[in-house]
Amino acid sequence: MSANVYVGTASWTDKSLIACKRFYPPGHASAEARLRYYASRFPMVEVDSSYYAMPSGSNAQLWAERTPPPFVFNIKAFRLLTGHQTPRVAFPKDLQGALPPGPRANVYYKDVPAALQDEIWRRYLEALAPLAQADKLGLVHFQFPPWLTGDKASRTHIEMCAERMAGYGVAAEFRHHHWFDDAHRDATLAWLRELGWVNTIVDEPQGFTNSIPTVWASTSTRAAVLRLHGRNHETWNVRDSTAASDRFNYDYREAELAALIDPIRVIAKEVARVYVVFNNNYEDQGQRNALALMNLLGDSAILPTTEPTQRPPDDVASLF
Length: 320
Description:
By secondary structure, this protein is of the alpha/beta class. The chain contains 11 helices and 10 strands.
């Protein structure tokens, strides 16, 4: 079969990545230079900033222009839409005055008037349009909060999201163990198939209420997603950290990456594309691990277009 595994990382602008000065060569200080360099090394990236604030169509247009034709962006859904608490300042300035008044700094989707919900959805989808028109929009990634546990209210909200996202490729990532415990795993997978959504396969610390097991199952022929959060039990629920990357501080060993190859290849036979996203975004861990995995995948991995005949560096041993 032809190569169909896209390997990349969650974000290309994380503060600790830039600060470590090990990934970007000297002279790559601008947003444009960094994205162009990143796209010369990987065929895809997951946009993390769209979770924290509404994405903009102008930025999406620049991303499309600064990357080669086959490069793909997976976009994280805005936090309000997934059911997370959302700071008022994260809303577009012209919409902040339409939020319900009150002393709380955060609001939830249920707090937002229906007309404002409609406008946020409209703007969100409008911002995705430049990537979709350039054929560079992979999946929209909905990472739901731990308090969506699989009860009726949780499912109602997610089904509403599915209606709003009709026509788009969408991946769901759950963060409460109930969804994939022994009693609910099959029903959750069947429900995702009915919605037409992609099941997100995760690699993450186990034994917590807000972690789920690794379930190698596809729910859409469109794609599969593997998100690697690292296996750092000590930092999984760390509090008072100064950066989100502290939570995902984990450097995969070569043997751990090698153990993923066969499952990835099996699921790649069931879907059109597999997106492998390294979310261990502390310094350059994700980039090094992603390059090493591409090398281990061999002909299964999509290569960056700017280097059509080259595999990742042969000296991958130095990456560990």
